[in-house]
Amino acid sequence: MQRIEHIYIDGQFVAPHGEEWFDLHDPSTERVIGQVRLGDAHDAQRAIAAAKAAFPAWSRSSREERVDALQRMHRAVAAREDELMEAVILEYGAPTQRSRWMATYPADVIAQAIEALQAFEFEEQAGSARVAMTPVGVAGLITPWNSNAGFICNKLATALAAGCTAVIKPSEMSALQTRVVAEALHEAGLPKGVFNIVNGRGDIVGEQIARHPDVAKISFTGSSAVGQHLVAAGAASMKRVTLELGGKSPTLVLDDADFAAIMPLVLMAGFANSGQACIAGTRILVPRHRLAEFEAVARHAVAQIKSGDPRQADTDIGPMVSARQWQRVQGYIRLGIEEGATLLAGGEGRPDGLDAGWFVKPTIFTGAHNAMRIAREEIFGPVLTIIAYADEAEAIAIANDTDYGLSALVLGSDVDRCERVARQIDAGRVLVNTLAHEPRAPFGGFKHSGLGREMGRWGIGAYLEPKTLLITR
Ligand code: NAD
Questions:
Q1: Going by CA atoms, what residue is nearest to atom 16 of ligand 1?
Q2: How far apart are alpha carbons 429 and 216 in whole angstroms?
Q3: CATH number for the domain including 109?
Q4: pTM here?
Q5: d(Cα 88, Cα 426) in Å, to the nearest integer?
Q6: What is the pLDDT of residues 154-210, one digit of tens each?
Q7: Do residue 87 and residue 199 come from a single domain?
Q8: Cβ count near 96 (within 10 Å)
Q9: Which has the closest alpha carbon to 440: 66, 119, 99, 101?
Q10: 278 among known catalytic residues
Q11: What is the pLDDT of residue 97?
Q12: pLDDT tens per residue, range 374-397
């Protein structure tokens, strides 16, 4: 039983003013494995005050000083890889392959921020003016449970690179990861107050950060509903906002695709992180004249996908993070059946042989259309929907007929044609015949999938205001 009592304010681990204890579960067993003491509005205010006090000095620090601090952060977080891996498996049941990535990504993303900072142009000439990119102030960083350590490190490294100081509100469900990261960041020996971490509920600590006049910017990753709320909550104090939100991404299979060859990518795109990924390719668009052939290949391939114990090396899909999320996914499977879609694989209940743990059968619907709720709403579990299309124009129209626009995958044999199609899809990132990730490129969504971009110079720029200087000497 782990008890996580402290939050991190002004360079120290301190007991929070808040007194509520929140249970942490192992989703593979449903057992309580620990408790975290949550901060409250008072704790959030103390953290904001510390970040505000640290801002003048940090905002004037040189590029070299920031690079040096980020390098210390990088070394400290990289040294915690194994502990982070254990935390993500225990805390949300990430399967082994995924959890290794989850454990290395936090340090990698700091290294990427260092690279972006080293190349960043903080000043440029615009006609007769100098334009100085100026840090906005205290940043409120709010993270989701499905990549908590990664988003803490990404958002913090980028904010610090820009010269901002920060208050972090991690997901309350990710306290084990947060503790590992907080200890590593403490060891990095940054000036006190430049970052502060307050465990707490979204509607208490998150809300305080979202409304506080001394917070200039919010960077949030999470659901679209909370993201919309944050824009409204920050309006009175004119907060700058970067939002990384949900998705209902299309995997567009063109009619010249080799189905056997592309099926691993189709399933990996849909079932990544046990289907609990914002970028998951959950709508699979397939040419109608080859639908039966696609279904046969998919049925065979999904039968090889293993949902179960995340510690076993051959497990592809781990449990859902919580009982609530498990019930939500079950509800969508029932809904799909009620809406008239046909189950090609999976269905309600746990996979055979498992009688505990929030496990879900890898599920694929077919015979669906894009107006169904299972095709429109983010399910956040291993539930995919095949939708047939008549021709390329209809495929593109279906791909774009969504409130979301985070990611898309186009699969086909003629790469030039794939690229032509990719350019017509409204999404922040479109992949062609690959699931590769490019950390130097901007990441974020169109439409309800977000506002602004993270990563690279786009990420740093989101924490800066251009200041125009016109000087007569
Ligand atoms: P969530 O929106 O429920 O919570 C995210 C964070 O917001 C948590 O820390 C939570 O405590 C906090 N929060 C909740 N209410 C708040 C409020 N009123 N004010 C301030 N903060 C508040 O999301 P989740 O369930 O943790 O994560 C899953 C969601 O995140 C999915 O929709 C997924 O698509 C999205 N996501 C997006 C990306 C991306 O990069 N686009 C990446 C990962 C996850």
A1: 202
A2: 28
A3: 3.40.605.10
A4: 0.97
A5: 32
A6: 999 999 999 999 999 999 999 999 999 999 999 999 999 999 999 999 999 999 999
A7: yes
A8: 17
A9: 119
A10: yes
A11: 78
A12: 999 999 999 999 999 999 999 999
Cβ neighbours of 41 (radius 10 Å) = 18
- How many other CB atoms are found less than 10 A from the CB of residue 119? 11
Respond yes or no: is residue 438 known to be catalytic.
no
DSSP character at residue 259: H
Q: Which of 91, 244, 295, 378 is catalytic?
A: 244
Determine the residue of 278, 407, 447, 458 to mutate for testing ligand 1's pocket, defined as the one with the most ligand atoms within 8 A of the Cβ atom: 278
Residue 206, ligand 1, Cβ within 6 A? yes
Domain membership of residue 264 as a residue range:
250-432
Q: Which residue has the tokens 């929030």?
A: 358
- The whole-angstrom separation of Cα 145 and Cα 3 is 18
- pLDDT score of 259: 98
406 within ligand 1 shell (Cβ under 6 A)? yes
Does residue 63 form part of some domain? yes
**Residue 222 belongs to a domain:** yes
pLDDT per position as a tens digit, 206-224: 999 999 999 999 999 999 9
Q: Which of 172, 150, 154, 167 is nearest to 91 (CA)?
A: 172
What is the C-alpha end-to-end distance of the chain, expressed in Å? 67
Residue 453 maps to a domain:
yes
The alpha carbon of 242 and the centre of ligand 1 are apart by a number of angstroms equal to 13
CB of 105 within 6 A of ligand 1: the answer is no
**CB within 8 A of 30, min separation 6: which ones?**
323, 356, 357, 358
Any atom of ligand 1 within 6 Å of the Cβ of 199: no
Query: Ligand 1: which of 146, 379, 447 to mutate, most ligand atoms within 8 Å of CB?
Result: 146
Q: What is the per-residue pLDDT across 52-77, written as a single tens digit (0 to 9) for each?
A: 999 999 999 999 999 999 999 999 99
Q: Ligand 1 centre from 148 Cα, in Å?
A: 10
Same domain, 239 and 258: no
pLDDT at 206: 98
Place of tokens 């743990």: 357
> Are β-strands 240-244 and 249-253 bridged in parallel, bridged antiparallel, or unpaired?
unpaired
**Is there an atom of ligand 1 within 6 Å of 208 CB?**
no
Pairing of strands 165-169, 138-142: parallel
